[in-house]
Fold this protein.
Amino acid sequence: MTTPDWSFERAHWRRGCFRVAGVDEAGRGAWAGPVTVAAVILPNTAQDLPFRDSKQLRAEVRTELAAEVRRVALSWAVEHAPPEEIDRLNILGATHAAAMRAIARLDPKPQALVTDYLRLPTDLPYSAPAHADALSYSVAAASLLAKTERDALMVQLDLEYPGYGFAGHKGYGAPQHREALAELGVSAVHRRTFAPVARLLEPKLLG
């Protein structure tokens, strides 16, 4: 497992930007549910922290560490872009919109950003390295919040839309999800512009 550090944050600190927000998303590739973006400003103490890329952790560890993020963060925020916003703006546009909403809610305000390869429409200085959730403590912290909050929402949607298996696959393209779509049809929380869903909405050819 890759251990994050403060390298990207330090680059901003050296330029006098001491409130650096890590930004990460969860759910961009799912067929249903929102894309969720978190923004987190950690204290710039440069100490070792337990935060890791959420994808590398078991669910119970993610939950514990997400609680620790909320405890130690100077500021944090989570925003969801629902399926209708994704269909209207496309997935990248909706991710940008949710990210900017989350950043706007931070208090104190960030002076710089580190994102996981997400280039945002902002005047703030930022770095956007690939795999930043495994390399940066701030982005790892954001990944923990985005993943756990989105997972919890998908469990709730599983109760509201039974049969699709949202609690298990979290809206991604698992075989169970594909089979449920074919049997039950498209729900109100599916992304209608995503190809596997859109194909089911196409008018059937006559003859």
About this structure: Residues 7-147 form a domain with the Nucleotidyltransferase; domain 5 fold (CATH 3.30.420.10). Strands lie at 20-26, 35-41, 75-81, 112-115, 126-127. DSSP finds nine helices and five strands in the chain.
